[in-house]
Amino acid sequence: MALTIAIIGRPNVGKSTFFNRLVGKRLAIVDDTPGVTRDRREAMGSLGDYKFKIIDTAGLEEGKGKSLSARMWQQTEKAIEEADFSLFMIDARAGITPLDKHFAELLRRGNHPMILVANKAEGRAGEEGLYDAYSLGLGAPVAISAEHGEGLAELIEAFDEMCRELGIDPLSEEEEEVVSFSVAIEGEVSEEEEAESEIDPGLPLQIAIVGRPNVGKSTLVNQILGEERQITGPEAGLTRDTIGVTFDYEGREIRMFDTAGLRRKAKVQEKLEKLSVADTIRALNFAEVVILMVDATMPFERQDLSIASLAVQEGRSVVIALNKYDLIENRQEVLKDIAEKLEHTLPQVKGIPVVPISALTGRGVNKLMPAVFEAYRQWNRRISTSKLNRWLAETTDYHPAPSVSGRRVKMRYITQIKTRPPTFAIFCNRPAAVPDSYQRYLMNELRWDFELPGVPIRLLLRRGDNPYHKK
Q1: Does 385-463 match 3-172 at the fold level?
Q2: 121 annotated as a binding-site residue
Q3: Residue 324 assigned ligand-binding role
């Protein structure tokens, strides 16, 4: 097992900035606003020769009952219990606060191994706070600057000492092989290699859960995982960062991303929400299957269609999870309304699967992952060239392309040039003269005849004869 380290401390001391530095990427949203991080975020990080799992946590705040701060503290407690040791971070420039003292005492009583880290210690402004840190009773503080990368050599020494005390030898572990998720797919394929040849079960299936605020995205993640992994509640906009969680489903590794809710662009004014939206769109771009969550108790709004359209434009396969389905009475009418709106608004992806669920009770959730796997299979689908050309001949014989200026448009050859999403190229004599309506006809026939529901299809028209007629 890899070494696991949690970064803890009160709000706005620089935990997420240091998390990003250890990971080597800007994964966590960083802003001057206190309390940006709410859920715990995990990633693989490194420091010197050390490789470890690092957990970024919410700022330590007091809270009781079911308040948001109490729920955030529960998530931090889980991170501390999971970690081999923690980095307790303070702000050297702000000095020691009563909140620092309170949680230092609380954690000291819990006998959790930790290293005291004094952030923002660069220059003389942090000297007084650095000396005051000794009063916390957590040992000598390690002075660092997460923003500028100072003090990391001293932190490595503290890692060495802590690992010796705990009897851990993480440097003896073999490094995991780094696998690229980028797969180039070009060229021809035989009939025997059709359909399943593009799926690599050794790579994690990347899923992004998107939707408007407060539709139940985090609740769904918790329901699938069977634990309170994400903070949930009646408040809208609880999730700010895009949080990735890895789990195993029926022998397949899944990487699922819980994202911040997407409101209409005109309503997004604050800088922090803009950062959250950008983080969500980035997760959508890297996903292979997008689960669009819709609240069944609210009308299927234009924003839902905009999010679905965004996923389709990026070429992602889409599954709609109709949440809170158990709370409505006219269920068939709601399903019919959604199907009609999708049919008229997103005709390029006819047949998007709609799965009624209740994320809170778990009803219908067992049907969601099979729908996701089927959408993923269709997204990776490859159809042999011989089948495609038999289809093209039959389709154009039944409904030929319209003549333009008295000249016929001849569809000569078709091949699938890539998958993810399925992309086809048709060679013809006058590609610029083919009307959009006829292109839609060909795409609809492709989808219907080869059973590709709910998957974006790309159709490219190219000028030329059959490029393989001499072979």
Answers
A1: no
A2: yes
A3: yes
Higher pLDDT, 317 or 31: 317
The tens digit of pLDDT for each residue in 391-432 reads: 999 999 999 998 877 788 889 999 999 998 999 999 998 898
What are the strands, taking DSSP E only, across 162-284? 205-211, 243-249, 252-258
215 marked ligand binding residue: yes
15 is in an annotated binding site: yes
CATH number of 3-172: 3.40.50.300
CB atoms under 10 Å from CB of 425, counted, come to 17
Question: Binding residue per annotation — 58?
Answer: yes
* Burial class of 228 by CB neighbour count within 10 A (0 to 12, 13 to 18, 19+): middle
pLDDT score of 12: 82
Phi-psi region of 115 (alpha: psi -120 to 50; beta: other; left: phi over 0): beta
Annotated binding-site residue? 219? no
Distance CA 184, CA 51 (A): 30
Average of per-residue pLDDT across 75-88: 86
Check whether 274 is labelled as a binding-site residue: no
Per cent of the chain over pLDDT 90 is 29
Q: State yes or no: 287 annotated in a binding site.
A: no
Determine whether the annotation assigns residue 393 to a binding site: no
Query: What is 195-379's CATH number, 3.40.390.10, 3.40.50.300, 3.90.550.10, 3.90.1150.10?
Result: 3.40.50.300
292 marked ligand binding residue:
no
125 is in an annotated binding site: no
Is 12 known to sit in a ligand binding site?
yes
Q: Would the annotation count 122 as a binding residue?
A: yes
pLDDT band of residue 261 (cuts 50, 70, 90) is confident
- Burial class for 249, CB neighbours closer than 10 Å (0-12, 13-18, 19+): middle
Q: Is 187 annotated as a binding residue?
A: no
260 is in an annotated binding site: yes
Note the pTM of the prediction, 2 decimals: 0.69
According to the annotation, is 433 in a ligand binding site? no
The reply, when asked if residue 10 is annotated as ligand binding, is: yes
Per-residue pLDDT of 283-301, as tens digits, reads: 788 889 999 999 888 877 7
Count of CB atoms situated within 10 Å of the CB of 79: 21
- CATH superfamily of the domain spanning 385-463: K homology (KH) domain (3.30.300.20)
**Residue ranges of domains in the chain:** 3-172, 195-379, 385-463
Tell me which residue of 456, 454, 453, 384 sits closest to 422, measured CA to CA: 456
**65 annotated to a ligand binding site:** no
Check whether 245 is labelled as a binding-site residue. Answer: no
Residue 306 is labelled as binding a ligand = no
